[in-house]
Amino acid sequence: MRRIILRSQHLGAHGMGYNTSSLEELSRKLGPEDIPTLIGILKQKNLTVGAEFALAAQCEAAIDPLHVAALQSDDLLFLMATEDTLRLIAEFEGCPSGAKQHAASTREELADARDQMMQRERREVELREANDARIQRNAMKMMDPAQAGQLTRTEREEVFQRSLKASGLDKQPRTPAQEQLVQRMYRTMVLGEAVHGSAPQ
Fold this sequence. Notes:
Elements (H helix, E strand, L loop, with lengths): L1 H6 L2 E3 L2 E3 L2 H10 L5 H8 L5 H9 L3 H13 L3 H16 L5 H46 L2 H4 L4 H15 L8 H14 L3 H4 L5
Antiparallel strand pairs: 1-2
Helix pairs in contact: 3-4, 4-6, 5-6, 5-7, 6-7, 7-9, 9-10
């Protein structure tokens, strides 16, 4: 199937690529039974464009499987490739008018889903950045004995875990020397032994 996709490329103004002739050729050489495999190939970056054309050549038969696969995926690039495929179906003269309309309406629905996904990702990034900034501020407070006592046990443990990750000590297994260092960091940062001389109340 990969060979069929690659051999359907034609020489154009920008070199070898896919065009209307590719769609016509792929519609003859591939069928609806190939759609599940083609959707898998669509996720492979080196064959994404070819898989888009191969799926588009199946017209109506490819629309619902693409729709379901896109809604089940959290991969933004795959969702965009699905939208591109539906656009090709909507523009391919070899597809019936009903399939073109179905592809266009499905593409609009997926565009809305993509926008929502991007908004969620932006919110998650903003939340992570705000959380990182908060932990960084708490780490600075831990360096000041006057402010260290203001931190809760949970806040001190957050700083401790971040320090472990930054130093590469969060991974197992650890050597005995590393384990001793981790325990010393825990007593200092979480229990406050080095800061207060005893565990905070």
